[in-house]
């Protein structure tokens, strides 16, 4: 029997990014940028419970600090989504993105930017809700892998495949 947890595919999260405000930081030495999260969705994988099918409410924000090396970004994101049942859910995630040349092209708005592969962005996601049917989201440990979706003439979308840590075999 393994003492390591297994991962259960749980949901896909899509985040549409808006303007990025380069705030800077006079005291930290790692510049702060705030990315507006203007649209998005959270949709369960078939068979995952509690099932959620939710869309962004208003605008969220991702508070991003670049490491001094310039090789990674540290994410700290917050948003509210509304499930089709009407339930509101607060979601937050933190994580690390490796700034590869491909990611740099996307974030820099290069015409040569292409959708990146999964494997350079990892997050831990948390949920909070007052809805009894979705409260199971609050008690799980969720991790995800992300990629940047780049399509000409469209805003950047970040796609996360989220899994729930469960008892190993």
The average pLDDT score comes to 94
Which spans have pLDDT < 50 for at least 5 consecutive residues?
none
Biggest sheet details? 8 strands, antiparallel, barrel
Task: Please state the overall shape, judged from the principal axes of the Cα atoms.
Answer: globular
Cα(first) to Cα(last) distance is: 6 Å
User: What structural class results from the helix and strand content?
Assistant: mainly beta
Helix content: under 10%
Please work out how many helical segments DSSP would assign.
1
Strand order of the largest sheet: 1-2-3-4-5-6-7-8
Number of E-type strands = 8
Sequence of secondary-structure elements: EEEEEHEEE
Question: How would you explain this protein's 3D organization?
Answer:
- This protein is mainly beta and 169 residues long.
- The chain has 1 helix and 8 strands, in the order βββββαβββ.
- It has an 8-stranded antiparallel barrel with strand order 1-2-3-4-5-6-7-8.
- A hairpin with an 8-residue loop joins strand 2 and strand 3.
- The chain is globular, with a radius of gyration of 16 Å.
- The N and C termini lie close together (6 Å).
- It holds the Pfam family DUF3237.
Short description:
Pfam families: DUF3237. The protein is mostly beta strands. It has one helix and eight strands.
């Amino acid at each position: 029997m393994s003492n390591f947890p297994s991962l259960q595919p749980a949901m896909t999260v899509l985040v549409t990014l808006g303007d990025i405000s380069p705030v800077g930081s006079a005291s930290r030495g790692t510049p702060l940028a705030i990315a507006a999260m203007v649209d998005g969705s959270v949709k369960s994988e078939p068979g995952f419970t509690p099932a959620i099918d939710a869309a962004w409410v208003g605008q969220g924000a991702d508070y991003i600090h670049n490491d001094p090396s310039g090789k990674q970004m540290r994410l700290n994101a917050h948003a509210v989504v509304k499930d089709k049942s009407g339930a509101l859910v607060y979601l937050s995630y933190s994580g690390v993105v490796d700034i590869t040349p491909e990611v740099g092209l996307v974030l820099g708005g290069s015409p040569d930017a292409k959708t990146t592969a999964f494997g350079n962005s990892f997050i831990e996601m948390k949920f909070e809700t007052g809805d009894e049917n979705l409260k199971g989201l609050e008690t799980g440990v969720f991790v995800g892998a992300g990629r940047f979706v780049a399509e000409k003439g469209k805003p950047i979308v970040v796609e996360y495949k989220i899994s729930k840590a469960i008892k190993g075999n």
